[in-house]
Amino acid sequence: MIKVLIDQTNRICEIVQSEENTFPIASAFRWIDGPDDVTYRHIFDDKYGFIKPKPSEFHYLENGVWVEDTQKKITTLEREYRSKRDRLLKISDWTQVTDAPVDQQAWADYRQALRDVPQQSGFPTDVNWPTKPE
After folding, report:
1. Fewer Cβ atoms within 10 Å of its own Cβ: the N or the C terminal residue of the chain?
2. What backbone phi and psi angles, to 5 degrees, belong to 91?
């Protein structure tokens, strides 16, 4: 049996394996029977009981169930991937200088492929990043 010590804000403070391991507590705390897989990352709610840890930063809790905020996920990924693309373009700017000792056409093609990343059909949830020339 798993016993879980919960504080007045419903934060999990302690997890013990059996009833014999519990100890006296202050009135601001309480022992609750917990599921076998409970962790300190679980959330306890008086109405819904133990709720598994938040699956990702894109989830919010609704009626005791994690719901994915798809729009937040897409907006965040778009911003992150555009930022990554911009960084990759910036660090490869030098390859387009006339006397750069590289295959300038290969680098130009790579840079164009970077610019085209947001137009990929799966963007931003399924991105195929171009391979940097040698």
Report:
1. C
2. -75, -10
In contact, 45 and 10? CB cutoff 8 Å: yes
Peptide bond into 24 cis (omega under 30): no
Closest CA to 108 of 125, 123, 92: 92
- Where exactly are the structural domains of the chain? 2-59, 70-119
Question: pLDDT per position in the chain (134 positions), as tens?
Answer: 899 999 999 999 999 987 666 778 888 999 999 999 999 999 999 999 999 999 999 999 999 999 999 999 999 999 999 999 999 999 999 999 999 999 999 999 999 999 999 999 999 999 999 999 98
Longest dimension (CA), the chain: 77
DSSP 126: S
